[in-house]
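User: My collaborator sent over this chain with a note saying "see what the structure looks like." That's all I know about it. Can you take a look?
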Amino acid sequence: MSQTASARNQRTMITTLRSRRLRWLPVVIALAVGLPSQGTATEAPPAGQGIAIPNFWNPRARQERIDTPQAGRTIRFLTDDEFPPLHFPGPDGTPTGFSVELARAVCEKLALTCTVQARRFDTLLDALSDKQGDVVAAAIPLTPALRARFLATRPYFRWPGRFIARTDKGLPVPSAASLAGRSVGVVAGSAHAAYLAAFFPKAVARDVTDLAAAEGALRRGEVDYVFADGLNLALWIGGIESAQCCAFIGGDYLENRYFGEGIGLVTRPDDAVLTRALDDALQQVWDDGKYAELYLRFFPVSPF
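Assistant: Without extra context I'll predict from the sequence alone. Here is the result:
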């Protein structure tokens, strides 16, 4: 799959996520406000929690001490407020969400004064380029086209491919052998369809026009599995439309060629010192367990 096709797939996936925001937003707000912080980056979730926390860092790795942005500088973060659980308005209208709170945690580590301003999603990169802000903390995929214009940290979140199945069928964990002859709902022309064909060639792909159609077919028992973006599937599994019929089965798939690099904090090319400082702070946020705390708060059903 080409980089262009992968980027197009990510845009489609994000469009689907954004279409679900109104249904999911009340749930996310309630959990973000009311769920106590739990877990650490190096410990398993508490008994019964069962939430997988992804690790995009090496906990034993340490960067050399790097310069921090000049004292007295206020770092202006730009985000969007229509993309839960990554960024959305809190009960008082203040931007919150996993990306936003992670940005605030990074600022605390760097002992910097930071502000967060919400803008329309499709204006964020132009606003950054025009120096109306210093960092974009939003679900903008890291692609070669983006890196040609901007700097970015290492990914702090990625888009895993996942299988889901009905919980009452006792189906085997997906593998090239176990999926032979079994039906898998998949969005036609997507990266997930290409991945299924390449690595599970004996599966019977049931192409559908959109993810909602695949999920409905699974709920009705018309297909054995669905293979799609893990975050979209997590929102469906945790929502009322699934009727608690289904759950993830098997592990996550993160091949960059198909599913992209993920998302990071994006800065201008002339702000390399800030980019390195943000990377260092993200490592610290992982090391001290703050990343896990925020993840448990905003992802009641983990996409991983």
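A starting point for your reply to your collaborator: The domain at 161-253 is CATH 3.40.190.10 (D-Maltodextrin-Binding Protein; domain 2).
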